[in-house]
Amino acid sequence: MQAILKAAQRDNWAAKYQAQVAAVISNKVDAAGLAVARAQGVATEVIDHKTFASREAFDEALAQRIDRYATMDHPPLVVLAGFMRILTPGFVNHYAGRLVNIHPSLLPAFAGLNTHQRAIDAGCKVAGATVHLVTPELDHGPILAQAVVPVLPGDSAATLAARVLTQEHRIYPQAVLGLLQNK
Fold first, then answer.
1. Is residue 132 among the annotated active site residues?
2. Rounded to the nearest 5 degrees, what angle is found at the Cα of 178, between the Cα atoms of 175 and 183?
3. CATH code for the structural domain at 2-180
């Protein structure tokens, strides 16, 4: 999220593409990204998923909040960054073609959690990150960008994750920019 904010400001997405980071919305009040966004002058909101009776009710409230930032000329591009909840098909379909996620593996390999340890355990020589459009099937949407890093002898899940994260910060803003440019 921070890399996307930085790229949007550095490359002046507002002037070039009539696009801006309108808000950062989290389901966790203590999410670090909220403070980062506030410091950049970006609106922030928290919708605690624990206060809703169902996943569907939370997703409906989240969509309503997101849609407040949209205009007729600028429907929202919803970029998930550190949002660790599985979204309902209704939510995903509401933003079809405009809902983006990053996953710390070279999809379709290692969908879901614990990707770095799973790659090490499988004996992979490379790992990486994937930016993809979100579909109702978990971590299976169309791939927008990927980056590869080597799995080094003696790697732990933490050391591999750190190398992958540097690539995530590089490719996620590039993929979002590509969508803004209709590529």
1. no
2. 130
3. 3.40.50.170
